Please model this.
Amino acid sequence: MSASAAVLAALAACAASALAVPGRATPEPRAVATTARADRDWLRRWRPVWVLLSGAAVAAFLGGAMGVAAAPVAAATTWLVIERSEPAEVRRTRDRARRDLPHVVGLLADALRSGRPPDDALGVVASALPGPAAARLAEVVPRLRLGIDPALVWADLAADPALGPLGRALARAHRTGAPVVPAVERLADELSRSARAEVEDRARAVGVKAAVPLGLCLLPAFVLVGIVPVVAGLLSTLGL
Model:
């Protein structure tokens, strides 16, 4: 393999690493507000570079007419993979909304328990808890106040990847005619327990993750202090 082919192979490996990002199975609802920031995602910003690198790498590896024929296919595949990949900003926003959801649902249960209608309760929550989750709930309030069928509003909220549990609970209560307050209270308890369990799991994982670097730090000392003297003593005893 020539030097240029080796360089192209290395660049192709970098491009393959860049493409190892999680894809999105469904489009992110209400992602228009984050489009400007998502467009600055480094993977999309350098998409022409990744496309050229993948095509050049395939052409260099295969060579000849086969490489020339396969290069456009590789470039098109790279373009499609990057297009389907999820922007990092959208992923971070969704994760923050999921973390805020237990607090949002708990405050919503308190607001509903005080006798407020759902639209007023959602407005109170959106104004009291600023963040991605509250921002998404704020978009629901005008639709309810305009008289849109709550079933449609709750169905759209249930399709949200972060606020889906709340939307499903409200939709189920609306469909069955059950009281909203107990349904939201049960959801608040479930989310609180899940959040505590997740925190405990992360805390336990810290000890496991810390054991590996700690072992790597102690292993050289163990070899030098415990094994090397024994081996040296055995060699001197044997006269080697």
Summary: DSSP finds twelve helices and no strands in the chain. The mean pLDDT is 75. The CA atoms of residues 196 and 202 lie 10 Å apart.
